[in-house]
Amino acid sequence: MRFDYKKRAATQIEDQPIGKLLDTLRMESAFFTSSTFSSPWSVGMPPMSNCMMFHLIVEGQAMFQLGDKHITLTAGGFILFPKGSGHSFSDGTCKVVTPLSDLPIKAITERYETLDFGGDGAITKLVCGVLLFQHPLALKLLGVLPQHIIIDKSDDTGASVVTTISDLLQSETQRVSVGAEAVISRLADILVIAAMRQYLTELREDSLGWLSALSDDRIGKALKRIHDQPDKHWSLEELAHEVGMSRTNFAQQFKRLIGNTPMEYLTEWRMSLAFSRLQLTNDTVLAIALDIGYQSEASFSRAFKKVIGKSPGEVRKDYMALTASST
Questions:
Q1: Least confident of 210-214, 232-236, 248-252
Q2: SS3 category, 127
Q3: What angle is formed at CA 144 by the lines to CA 249 and CA 271, rounded to 5 degrees?
Q4: Does residue 289 surpass a pLDDT of 50?
Q5: Cα(73)–Cα(60) distance, integer angstroms
Q6: Please, which residues have CB within 8 angstroms of residue 265's CB and are 6 or more apart in sequence?
Q7: Distance between CA atoms of residues 71 and 40, nearest Å
């Protein structure tokens, strides 16, 4: 039997709506620090809007303080701050917190740094990262995520992923060889998404907010149709028919779970896809518009600005300026 590679390459990977959603998440910028601390030490991180911060314990242990809560993690432990919440972490004994701005950080490249800090006691090594997100769906997702997510090495469901990525991150941050920044960025991307996926799958359905719709048999099916065919001129009647519901019941259930009408969600999804393409490709605005179901650049641009708050040209210009400043 002849192998048709073109047909295979054109075949879409089947995925659940939550997978489609997470697949749209792309960091706009990132920087990473390979940190070595020796007791006594204590570091304070300021809040960072539209950012996710993470710390991966490579060696030793660290105690994180979030308000009145204290969490101690050992080698292999991972903590993510999806909303960029301010926090401190230490060896558990040092009472003097040194702010991030006062640390002797050494820039190796524009996006990679090293840090040696503390006294002459026990050693703790971490890989720390800050990821900037501006994608509209990424920001919406933050609304259902907690202030922090922890994956501990004792947690069998996530430990293998964290351990594997930890080893790879440690290797890349130590060598800083050709292409290391790109590899570190991808590994961090995978690690963050894996942590969010684990957290979301363990949530009770009534705690998912608008994401609960993704697991609803009928509304989830409708979302999958929209995600798979965003360029199709869907009507309310057609989507209701696809999932075996009456027009009225479908509209009411969709609005209850999602918070938007089906047509509003379709527009929002299209604009989210367009947002990513404006940043990650050189496709013309017209080509993007046609690919997601609009008949003209003008009608697409009006809808885009209404949903995103900026014109397509402004989004692309802002992203180009951001990437230029970090290269």
A1: 210-214
A2: strand
A3: 70
A4: yes
A5: 9
A6: 223, 226, 254, 258
A7: 18
- Give one DSSP letter per residue of 84-110, joined into a string: ---EEEESSS---PEEGGGS-EEESSS
Q: Is residue 9 predicted with pLDDT exceeding 50?
A: no
pLDDT at 150 over 90: no
Q: Domain 209-325 classified CATH 3.30.450.20?
A: no
- Lowest mean pLDDT, pick from 97-111, 260-274, 310-324: 310-324
Measure the CA angle with vertex 234, ends 228 and 236; round to 5°. Answer: 120
Q: Residue 35's pLDDT is what?
A: 92
Identify the top-confidence range among 75-79, 176-180, 218-222, 260-264.
Answer: 260-264
Token pair, residue 173, equals 């941050």
Residue pair 224/269 in contact (Cβ under 8 Å)? The answer is no
Q: How far apart are CA 133 and CA 61, in angstroms?
A: 29
Look up residue 124 and give its two tokens.
Answer: 């703790």
> Alpha-carbon distance 132 to 113, whole Å?
17
- The 3-state DSSP class for residue 232 equals coil
Check if CATH label 2.60.120.280 holds for domain 17-202: yes
∠ CA 34-85-184, nearest 5°, is 30
CA 327: distance to chain centroid? 21
* pLDDT mean over 26-38: 77
Q: Which residues pair with 130 in a beta bridge?
A: 31, 53
Cα–Cα separations (whole angstroms), residue 96 to 1, 14, 62, 119: 70, 52, 15, 13
Closest to 137 in 3D by CA, of 264, 305, 272: 272
Closest by CA position to 132, among listed 319, 324, 327? 319
Spatial strand order in the sheet of 112-118: 105-107, 112-118, 29-38, 123-132, 51-59, 78-81, 149-151
How far lies 46's CA from each of 85, 100, 133, in Å? 7, 7, 17
Comparing C-alpha atoms, which of 30, 123, 34, 126 is closest to residue 76?
126
C-alpha to C-alpha distance for 67 and 86, rounded to whole angstroms: 9
The ranges assigned to domains in the chain are 17-202, 209-325
